[in-house]
Amino acid sequence: MSTEELYISIDIEASGPIPGEYSMLSLGACVVGRPDQAIYLELKPDSPKHDPEAVAITGFDLQELTVTGIVPVQAMQRLAEWLANVSLSGRRAVFVGLNAPFDWSFVNYYFHKYVGENPFGFAALDIKAYYMGAFNLDWKQTKSSHMSANLLPQSSPTHNALDDARYQAELFQLMLQRRAALP
């Protein structure tokens, strides 16, 4: 693991499959290896369009979030400020996610739409792809259940964005440690 990189595990919950038409409802992030350095945000939906099945998985009430959620521009500004604070050592923040293409698409879209730029740059690191390559596995062996059975994390996913970001961070940390121990 490079000392110049700071891995940030991010998980989001959304009202549907794509940004722009559906809303990011919550975001959890933590520093890999330091789960106490974390941020959790619940956002006001920025679109009325939603997939009832996706919303049911999140456990959110969309009407309630329109009252209690943070407006997306403020949420993304808070995330950018948090990233700047945890990256004070000059290390480059690297977005890490389990199925990163999904979470990344929302985070990237929201950063560009509401803040004007994405502090992560233009790339993300997918834990599934890392796991596959680092341990010479087939794609079918990269399910989170397979990772958990093999790596034995202490935490588990709950569909709360912060809980899941911490779970992902733990999985990734265990992968990095196991990979470093290989000849």
Rg for CA atoms:
16 Å
Mean pLDDT, to the nearest integer, reads 95
Q: Give me the strand/helix succession.
A: EEEHHHEHEHHH
Shape: globular
CATH architecture descriptor name: 2-Layer Sandwich
Derived from helix and strand composition plus strand pairing, the structural class reads: alpha/beta
CATH class: Alpha Beta
The number of E-state strands comes to 5
Discrete helix count:
7
For this structure, the CATH topology is Nucleotidyltransferase, domain 5
Write the CATH homologous superfamily: Ribonuclease H-like superfamily/Ribonuclease H
Helix content: 40-55%
Overall tally of domains? 1
Distance between the termini: 15 Å
Instruction: Please indicate the percent range of residues in DSSP E strands (runs of 2 or more).
Output: 15-25%
Protein name: 3'-5' exonuclease
Organism: Pseudomonas pudica
GO molecular function: exonuclease activity
InterPro entries: Ribonucl_H, RNaseH-like_sf, RNaseH_sf
Describe this structure in words.
One of its GO terms (molecular function) is exonuclease activity. Keywords: Exonuclease, Hydrolase, Nuclease. InterPro entries: Ribonucl_H, RNaseH-like_sf, RNaseH_sf. Pfam families: RNase_T. This is 3'-5' exonuclease. The chain is α/β, with parallel strands linked by helices. The chain has one domain: Nucleotidyltransferase, domain 5 (2-Layer Sandwich). The protein is built from seven helices and five strands. The protein has a five-stranded mixed sheet with strand order 3-2-1-4-5. Strand 4, helix 4 and strand 5 form a beta-alpha-beta unit. Helix 3 packs across helix 4. The model has no long low-confidence stretch (mean pLDDT 95).
